[in-house]
Every structure is written in structure tokens, then in C-alpha cells.
Specification:
70 residues, mainly alpha
Length: 70
């Protein structure tokens, strides 16, 4: 499987699986930021209509939420 195919496959997984993959892959360089990364994962679930089953956010919807509603 090519790197592009692996990335495409990862993008279809829920936020939690993506965050776990990222933390496991880059732990030596991101370990001091793990709590913040995990908070981002929860924030993505909060913003997505599919909640924990979601895997991709609509960029315009997120910008609206962050800039206008918060």
C-alpha cells in the first residue's frame, strides 16, 4: 500500500483512531503535547454532527463555529 493510500485510509477512521495513530507514530516528538492533542480530538467530535463516528470536519462550518459562535 502506498503512503497516499495509507493516508486516505487513515482519513476514513474516526477521530479517536486518528489521534491514537498520530500519538503512537510521533510519540518521541509530541509526548509533552499529548493532552492538548487529545483535547483536539474531543473538540473535533464536539464539532462534528456525527460525533465520535465522524472522521472529517467541514472547514467552513468549523471556521464559522470558532469565529462567530465562540
Amino acid at each position: 500500500m502506498s503512503d497516499a493510500e495509507k493516508l486516505a485510509d487513515l482519513a476514513t477512521k474516526p477521530y479517536k483512531a486518528q489521534a491514537i495513530w498520530f500519538l503512537n507514530s510521533f510519540w518521541p516528538t509530541v509526548n509533552e503535547h499529548a493532552e492538548k492533542i487529545w483535547a483536539y480530538e474531543h473538540y473535533c467530535e464536539e464539532l462534528d454532527d456525527k460525533k465520535s463516528a465522524g472522521c472529517a470536519l467541514d472547514e467552513l462550518q468549523v471556521r464559522y463555529y470558532v469565529c462567530v459562535l465562540r
